[in-house]
Amino acid sequence: MGLPWYRVHTVVLNDPGRLIAVHIMHTALVAGWAGSMALYELAVFDPSDPVLDPMWRQGLYGPGIWVSDPYGLTGKVQSVNPSWGVEGFDPFVPGGIASHHIAAGTLGILAGLFHLSVRPPQRLYKGLRMGNIETVLSSSIAAVFFAAFVVAGTMWYGSATTPIELFGPTRYQWDQGYFQQEIYRRVSAGLAENQSLSEVWSKIPEKLAFYDYIGNNPAKGGLFRAGSMDNGDGIAVGWLGHPIFRDKEGRELFVRRMPTFFETFPVVLVDGDGIVRADVPFRRAESKYSVEQVGVTVEFYGGELNGVSYSDPVTVKKYARRAQLGEIFELDRATLKSDGVFRSSPRGWFTFGHASFALLFFFGHIWHGARTLFRDVFAGIDPDLDAQVEFGAFQKLGDPTTKRQGRNLDLNPLVYTFLLVSTLGIIFFAIFFREPPKISTKK
């Protein structure tokens, strides 16, 4: 009974030696890949600007045990005390991580001692097919996919384990204007102390302003946009400052910000009451609120352009478009040949990867759970059979009197065709697309 190529793993089901061997090999492959990638990322990591070019902009995953303020400005690695009260259930309290690990570890030890001492009831043992190794596989897959779903959620929505200084902001912080509100709160507090606009905006941390930029929104990445954020919109070099727009009547105007899932968005400027006062029209012939007609000007406060103002309509419209994306930054696209298309942060990649594998493992749990529960239906094996059955050993499953079969791979003709075409394709490219030899012109 030769097994098809996609079912050869069944030969390890009742062979403990090979079972542990393939698991050790799998662990080695995973650890080797992860370690190699970590060394590669460290080799190409540029630590020169932790504010505007942090590790998450470069695609590097950060360390743990990181404790910071709610706006990701003062974070550092530090020890934490377990939080045993109700506050430990707050997902943003680092002490809850320590207390829950202690509690879970203690519970796990007690559960292990219990199961060493107490055998399961016979009805439960038979009902869940506990004598079958595939039951262990099914339940293990369930634990893995559940954990993957949990960490995908804590990463995407944010928690104490996924601080923004290590993984970048969440999309909801852009959607809710989280950093914008904190910036305006600080500005209002400064103005209440009779400081000038220039003074209060100059005191806004560049790090806080950088969070309030749509290019750091993990949901702005897209399908097939591989690479770090720096490969997208470029390496941030400096904050140009906060632009304040005014019409000819002196009203302060605010640019409507681009929602997360838009690639283009109309440039609309509203006053403090939300009334549209200016825009960049699609058709100039029908415009009533164009920058030229309304006489919009822009002045910068804080940053590199502090105190600089523009009244030229072309320049005003340029900065109005850029203000749609949050605070305005100078971006270097030449160094990495960045293409100007937004990329996702490690937060987005982590979430996507773990959610995808969680879904895959969920179906794996259903598959192997069904195989072990209904083994008598699928394979014709008596569920009460105590003898071990090796798949692929005999012509008739579980019958040692039948002729023993060779362990050939029963490859589908389509697989042979694929292998042949792939080999020919590699040879073709190696011959016709190789780099031509360098011809020396020296005598």
From TrEMBL:
It is a multi-pass membrane protein. It is found in: Membrane; Plastid. It comes from the Eukaryota. One of its GO terms (biological process) is photosynthetic electron transport chain. InterPro entries: PS_antenna-like (IPR000932), PS_II_antenna-like_sf (IPR036001), PSII_PsbT (IPR001743), PSII_PsbT_sf (IPR037268). GO terms for molecular function: chlorophyll binding. Pfam families: PsbT, PSII. Keywords: Chlorophyll, Chloroplast, Chromophore, Membrane, Photosynthesis, Photosystem II, Plastid, Thylakoid, Transmembrane, Transmembrane helix. The chain crosses the membrane at residues 20-40, 97-116, 136-157, 414-433. The keyword Transmembrane applies. Belongs to the PsbT family. This is Photosystem II CP47 reaction center protein. It comes from Deinandra increscens subsp. villosa.
